[in-house]
Amino acid sequence: MLLGTQAVNDAGHLEIGGCDTVDLARQFGTPLYVVDETALRDNCRRYQAAFAARYPGESEVSYAGKAFLVTAMARLVEEERLSLDVASSGELYTALQAGFPPERILHHGNYKSDEELTMALDAGVGRIVVDNFFELRRLNSVAGEAGRVQPILLRVAPGIDPHTHRRIRTGQEDSKFGLNVRDGAAMEAIQEALRMPNIKLLGIHCHIGSQLLDAKSHEDAIDVMVAFLAEIRERTGQTMAELNIGGGLGVRYLPDHNPPTYEEFADLVCGALTTSLKRYDLAPPRLLQEPGRALIAETGTTLYTIGPTKRISITEEPGIRYYVSVDGGMSDNPRPQLYDAVYTAMIANRAGQPRDRVVTIAGKHCETDILIWNLPLGDTDQDDILAVQSTGAYNHAMASNYNRFRRPTVVFVQNGQADVVYERETLDDLLSRDRIPERLAKRS
Ligand code: LLP
């Protein structure tokens, strides 16, 4: 599986963005996150174009920063003319420091503190996606104190249970996110928001789940959301200007994963929307979306250096297991532990070699942090470079300092050039927040 600009060069090495990954590993050290900037920009353009060409109204694509956000990424997102979703003051601060236009920021979260609401208001964030009654009322009063009228979307739970890992389902009724359509809470919040002097209700939002490998759940959610738009018009006389259907489109982690292309996804989503809108005689609202994974996941590759290998006798077939250790693991990619996520990988310095040996890739943390079980990989040697694919989303973003590991460098590569966008933490960085109370100070 070669993704984006990935290719095998004459030396038999994996190349990304015209850079030899073996050289990258040598130059920047491992673990190393490599982001294929050309593929990333292409994804941003194609996703927008797919919807612009198919949706009869206006459409806006907002990148979900939670998937991967550093200041350079915020710059790229702005250059590609996407909007940006943030889900915390840290993400908001990153965007603002990058000079991202606040009016193109959407602020998310099921518990926005007063501090976060004030920060968002002061910054002039374009839309706050309100999750609950408590937040709606707080926002109305905080906006009032600031002398502002804040544009919002209201997050609703359409009652769709998508088929994806239970930890990344969000659109079902029994969820901590949003207000339920079915039990009337969402309509009550709409009516309350419309009466509020410091709130401008632009529309409704839902996000049903992540890593969805077909558009079925989106189509179902669209039915519910459009019916709800019609109900809002009927009950309040107001036509909502915007409909945000969240993110969720899945990607290829394994060669046999087959998510819809952006164009196929746009066909299905726009088809479902057009049909539903017609049914209720509604004009097309502005269509907003928030893809994270679909834009960034496949553009990321993690390089590791292979260390000790163990051959273990096991009772199950085939009687042997090879544990191949790498110099990272759950601190740079917790997804296998959290969601049973699957990945594939290749030996970057022998990229075309026959995959005639099955191995298990083990991390180096003090627990069983297996990155990949039973991977047909072929021969491995100490100091080989392992390239794990599709690690662009929710890897750096979810990395930790567990076992006091240092978070790895991230480089953007394009046209044979590699630029650092996040520098590997140093051992002193790890100590920089430590404080020693006087009573524990070392006495000479
Ligand atoms: N919008 C909202 C409101 C969201 O909550 C999310 C993801 C997105 C958009 C972007 O979804 P995407 O297009 O990336 O599927 N850490 C998990 C994924 C959690 C997703 C949380 N919300 C993982 O590593 O699989």
3D structure, described in words:
This protein is an alpha/beta fold. It is 30% helix and 24% strand. Strands 4, 14, 15, 16, 17, 18, 19, 20 and 21 form a nine-stranded mixed beta sheet that branches. Helix 4 links the parallel strand 6 (83-86) and strand 7 (105-107). The longest helix has 21 residues, at 216-236. The model has no long low-confidence stretch (mean pLDDT 97). It binds ligand LLP. The site of ligand LLP has 20 residues, from helix 10 and helix 11.
- Counted up, domains total 2
Hey, roughly how much beta strand do the residues contain? Answer: 15-25%
Give the name of the CATH architecture of the largest domain.
Alpha-Beta Barrel
Largest sheet: 9 strands, mixed
Helix count, per DSSP? 12
**General shape:** globular
At the first level of CATH, the class of the largest domain is Alpha Beta
CATH domain fold name of the largest domain: TIM Barrel
Q: What percent of residues adopt helix (DSSP H or I)?
A: 25-40%
Number of strands: 21
CATH superfamily of the largest domain: Alanine racemase
